[in-house]
Amino acid sequence: MTEVPDEVLGAARRGLKGSRRHVRDTFDARLHRWWPDLRDGLVAVYPRSDVDALAARFVRIAAKATVRRSPELHRLDLARTLQPDWFQSPSMLGYAAYAERFAGTLRGVREQAPYLRELGVTYLHLMPLLLPREGDNDGGYAIADYRSVRPDLGTVDDLRALTDDLRGQGISLVLDLVLNHVAREHPWAVAARDGDPRYRAYFHVFPDREMPDAFEQTLTEVFPDFAPGSFTWDDHLEGWVWTTFNSFQWDLNWANPDVFAEYLKIVLFLANLGVDVLRLDAIAFVWKRLGTTCQNQPEVHALTQALRALARMACPAVAFKAEAIVGPADLVHYLGQGRHHGKVSDLAYHNSLMVQTWSALAAQDAVMAAHALRTVLPVPATTAWITYVRCHDDIGWAVDDVDAAAVGLDGFAHRRFLSDYYSGTFPGSSARGLVFQENPETGDRRISGTAASLAGIEAAREQDDPVALATAVDRFLLAHALAMGWGGIPVLWSGDELALPNDPDWAHEPGHEADNRWAHRPRIDEKVARRRDDPDTVEGRVFQGLRHLAAVRSGLAQLHASVPAQVLDLADPGVLPVLRDHPVGPLLGLYNVTGTARPWPASRLWDLGFSRPFDALAGTALGVAPDGNVWLPPYAAVWAVEPT
Ligand code: GLC
C-alpha cells in the first residue's frame, strides 16, 4: 500500500477543520483507500515533482466539500458504499430529456415524477441546465456559469429541491459536466480576452497558424458544416483559440492543474446539490497531442481516474458516466482497461450497440452486428453500459471498415447505404431521418430523427397504413428490447416513450435553424401523453410496450450489469442471439431483426443447459415447432430463461 504523504494528510486535516469526528474518520479512511488511484492518475499527467503538492491542494478541496455535504447525502454516501452496485441493478431504467421540453421548469419536472415512475424510471438525465451563453449555445453545452441555473428553469435551490424530491422517489439525477470547453462568455474566457495571463493559460491559444495547421493535419472536424476547422481567431486574444466544437466553445487546457482544480470544485458543488451521476461530456477530447486525432489520449483516463478518486473521497455516492462516442477499441478504455481497470468512469454509452441495432434493422441482417459486438472487449464487472436506441445527438455511422470487411461488406458503401436508408432515399425505406453534417471530404452523412421516425412509425401513420404501422411499432420495440436486454442502464430519450415523430417546426427557434438535431428533441404534449393508457393508439402500444420490457427486465437477475453479454454464433442471419450466463441460470435473448419469421434451433437451447425454456417477455413456455425450431415472428424478441 502506498503511504499517504504527510503533506497530503496535513492538507486533509486543514480541510476538515471544525468537522465532527466521524466525518474526519470517514474521510481519512477514504483518503487511504483512494490515494493510490489519485497519485497514479496525477503522476501520469503532471510533472512528478509537483504531484504531492498538487494532491495536497486537491485533497484539501475534497475535504472541505465533504464537510459541507448535507447529512442526508452523507447517509447516501454510506448506503452506496455498502451497495456499490446500485447502478448495475436490472431495475435501473433511464430517461433523458430537456427539462423545458419535458415539463417546462425544474418545478414542472418534480410534478412529472409520477409519469416517470409509471414507466419505471429510476435515473433521470436532464440535459444541460446550468447557465449557458445567450443565443446559440449548442443545446446548453456552452456554459457561462457552472454555479447558476438557467433562470427560465428555476434556481439552484429549485435544483436542490428537485434532487431531494427525486431521491425520495427512487430516481437518481444525472447532469452534464461539460469539461472540454466553456462558452467564450464564461468569466475564464472573458479574463483571458482581457489579457489576464493566468486565464489565458486555461486555454490553448496560438499566436499564428503554425501550430493550428500542424494539429489540423490529423484532426477530424466535429461540425464540418456549421463550424469548420478546430481553431477560431479571436481579436482580443490576438491568437487562435482551440474550438473543437462551435467557435463559441473554447477548449480548456487540462495540462494546466488550475483547470483541474476548477473542475474538481464544480464536481463537488454539483455533488453537494444532490446530483447522483455526472456525465463527462465530450471527455474523449480533453487531451491534445500533435500528430493524433486528439481524442482518446492516455492522459484522458489518468485525469478521469484522479478526478474520480477525489470524488470517491468527498462524495462516494456520485458515479461518473463517460460520453465518448468513439470506436469500440477506444470505447472500452472509458470503463477502464489495464492499469485503469475499474478506476475511471462507472458508466459509458454503448454507441456501438446503438449503431449496430439500426444497421441490422436496415440491412435485415444481424451478421455484422454479431461480429462487431463480439469484438468489444470485456469491461470491468463493477461498471455498466448505458444502452440506448436514440439520444439527443445525431447518429454517426461508426461502422468500422475492418468489421465490415470481416463479414464481406465494404465499410464505405455500407455507411452510405445506412445514410440513404435512414434519410428515406433508399428504395423501400420508410425511415424519415434528416442528414446532419454532410462531409463531402469523408462522405459522412450523419442522421437526425426520433426513434419513431427512423423506425417507420411516422411514415406509416401518414400513409394511414395499419399493417405498416404494426410492423413499424414492432421494429421500434425490437430495438428497445435489445437495448433493455443487453445489460447496463437502458436510457430512453424523451418522447420516444410516446413514439413522437420528428418535430416539423424544429428550425423555427432562433439559433436552431442550422442544427437539425432539434428535429428529434420534441416537446411532450400533455394531450398526446394522455393517450398512453389507450392500447388502440400508437402512444399506448409503445408506452405500454416499453413499460412491459422494463418491468420484466427488473425481475431478471441475469440483467445485472456485472454479467457480460455474449453474442453467440448465429443460426439464422436474421436472429441475433445474446447470452447472459448468470449463476441463477442463463438468459438467452433472441432478436429477429427482419420482417419475416425466422427459426432458432431448439437443440441450441438444450446445449446451453435449458430444459423447460420460458419466454419471460411473453410470460409463457417457449414453443418448439415440430421441425425442432423456435419460430420468431417478424421483429420479435424472446428472453428465454428457466422457470424458477
Ligand atoms: C456532446 C454532446 C453534444 C454536444 C457536444 C459538445 O457530444 O452530446 O450534444 O454538441 O458534446 O459539448
Describe this structure in words.
- With 644 residues, this protein is α/β, with parallel strands linked by helices.
- Among the domains are: 6-82; 187-251, Oligo-1,6-glucosidase, domain 2, CATH 3.90.400.10; 564-641, Golgi alpha-mannosidase II (Immunoglobulin-like), CATH 2.60.40.
- The protein contains 24 helices and 25 strands.
- The strands form seven sheets. It has an eight-stranded parallel beta barrel, surrounded by four helices. Strands 18-19-20-25-22-23 form a six-stranded antiparallel β-sheet.
- Strand 18 (565-567) and strand 19 (575-582) form a beta hairpin.
- 53% of the residues are buried.
- The mean pLDDT is 97.
- Alpha-D-glucopyranose is lined by residues 138-139, 141, 178, 245, 281-282, 323, 392-393.
- Alpha-D-glucopyranose binds at residues 138-139, 141, 178, 245, 281-282, 323, 392-393.
Task: Write the SSE topology.
Layout (H helix, E strand, L loop, with lengths): L5 H11 L4 H23 L7 H18 L2 H12 L11 E4 L1 H5 L2 H6 L1 H7 L3 E4 L3 E3 L10 E7 L6 H13 L3 E7 L2 E3 L3 H7 L3 H4 L4 E2 L3 H7 L14 E4 L4 E4 L6 E3 L5 H16 L4 E5 L16 H17 L4 E4 L5 H4 L15 E3 L1 H13 L3 H8 L9 E5 L12 H6 L4 H12 L11 E6 L4 E5 L2 H5 L1 H6 L3 H21 L2 E5 L32 H5 L7 H17 L10 E3 L7 E8 L2 E8 L5 E4 H6 L6 E2 L4 E2 L7 E4 L4 E5 L3
Parallel strand pairs: 1-2, 1-17, 2-5, 5-11, 11-12, 12-13, 13-14, 14-17
Antiparallel strand pairs: 3-4, 6-10, 7-9, 8-9, 15-16, 18-19, 19-20, 20-25, 21-24, 22-23, 22-25
This protein binds alpha-D-glucopyranose.
